[in-house]
Amino acid sequence: MTGLTLQQIADLCGGTYHGPAELAGREPKELVIDSRRVQSGDLFAALPGERVDGHSFVGKALDAGAAGCLVKFVPEGEERPCVVVPDVAAAMQTIAAAYRDTLGIPIVGVTGSVGKTTMKEMLASVLGTRYPVLKTEKNFNNDLGVPMTVSRIMPEHRCAVVEMGISHFGEMEELGRIVRPTEMVYTIIGHAHLEALHDRQGVLKAKTELLPLLPETATLFVNGDDDLLAALESDLETVTFGTGKHCMVRAENIRLSGTDGTVCDIVCGERRIPVTIHAYGKHMVAAALGAAAVAMHFGMTDADIAAGIAAYEPVGGRAAVTETPLLTIINDCYNANPDSMGAALESLAMLSGRRVAILGDMYELGPDSARMHREMGEKAAALGIDHVITCGELARDIAAGASGGNVTAFDTREDLIAALPTLVERGDRVLVKASHGLHLEAVVEALENLT
Q1: Which helix (H) or strand (E) holds 13?
Q2: Long-range pairs for 298-302: beta carbons < 8 A, 24 or more residues apart
Q3: Which H/E stretch holds residue 328?
């Protein structure tokens, strides 16, 4: 983040500069909210928390070399540079939006109910074969993470990929005012955050709040296999991707292997690009297609696109495949809703051998939660999954839906782990899928240690 001094930041945010006058001209590098991650030249934002107040770490941040601190009040006795503002979080957004005004590079926004982080990582991998790319770290995609991401865009970056996540109405408009993407990618409009957004139409409305903020030259990339996105009306240029023949960028000859990942041909007009995705699942094809569509828009070659897709690596419990002497484990337990769980089950059903699905609670589904869980069990049964194992109170409805087949239900993660040696067999393909709050990564670890 260059071009904004501490004094300019104070003026911009309706605040005041506190500290030595000769240091008011410092230009901070990045916005940081964790004092442990402060590096020389950063701007530390002292956010109040439920258990810890960031103002307690102002001195530590300045000791670590921060150019200054963004604060609501100056800690007693602190004489070093601080910018005092009415609301630290709001000031972060104001600063990032102002810095965004100075940037002249393509910024690709990514949103959707499922697969945002996977799409972001795939885009960065593909675009990175040609450009120095800045991408969102981890899943820092909210009202605090997005300003930090924008602040990290430096002069050497020629492109940025920014993940944008919301759970309530109005939030996407706020993020849109900060990011103002030149390209926008929509993964899927699914059954997520329904407690606040009510239904899929509500999800669509919330996710598309930023469209009026985009420049007339912006391009939308939407998953054409999603009925709501396929019917989306916009004055902006729109490119569809998916497996349907109506999609402008589509996949053919999809083949899944628990060991080798996913293989397909990406087709667009006369172009046909054979690609290998070193991750498991049909949903990985959607990520590759979205990344390829954006790359084609940027004029990249088939070879660059194939190389970028091949270089993708799964992150944080998202469709990662592990081979042990006993099992093939598909670790997809970072998060779950009916759309992602359904896709994971469909992918599992495409594999050979005995297929086991360990499925846990899906959170934030609203009043229809029981029905949606039950439908996952019914889907698993219809797909012929050999053994459905559930974990958690909500997942009891998955077990009920799969009744009639081989089903085992557990209330706790600990009971499930204790029973694992009696539940799986040598050569099994085992999917582990649940919302992150259930922490089934412990189940994955236990599976990896079975002998």
Answers
A1: none
A2: 298/106, 298/127, 298/130, 300/126, 300/127, 300/129, 300/130, 302/271, 302/273
A3: strand 328-331
pLDDT of residue 313: 87
Q: Which residue from 87, 162, 161 is spatially nearest to 126, judged by alpha carbons?
A: 161
pLDDT per position as a tens digit, 249-295: 999 999 886 566 889 999 999 999 999 998 877 788 999 999 999 99
Query: In 198-298, at which residue ranges do the beta strands (DSSP E only) sit?
Result: 219-223, 237-242, 249-257, 261-268, 271-277
Please, is 231 exposed, middle or buried when counting C-beta atoms within 10 Å of its C-beta (0-12, 13-18, 19+)?
Answer: exposed
Please answer whether residues 216 and 237 qualify as being in contact, where contact means their C-beta atoms are separated by less than 8 angstroms.
no
Compute the distance between CA of residue 128 and CA of residue 122 in angstroms, rounded to an integer.
Answer: 10
For the whole model, what pTM was predicted?
0.82
For the chain, how far is it from start to end, CA to CA, in angstroms?
51
CB 292 within 8 A of CB 386: no
Q: Are 409 and 358 in contact (CB under 8 A)?
A: no
Instruction: Tell me the β-bridge partners of 357.
Output: 388, 431
Integer-rounded Cα Rg, in Å, for the chain is 23
Phi-psi map region of 404: left, alpha, beta (phi>0 left; psi -120 to 50 alpha): left
Among 107, 123, 115, 175, which residue's Cα sits nearest to residue 145?
175
Q: Return the structure tokens found at 378.
A: 């019914």
- What confidence tier does 317 reach under pLDDT thresholds 50, 70, 90? low
Element (H, E) at 431: strand 429-433
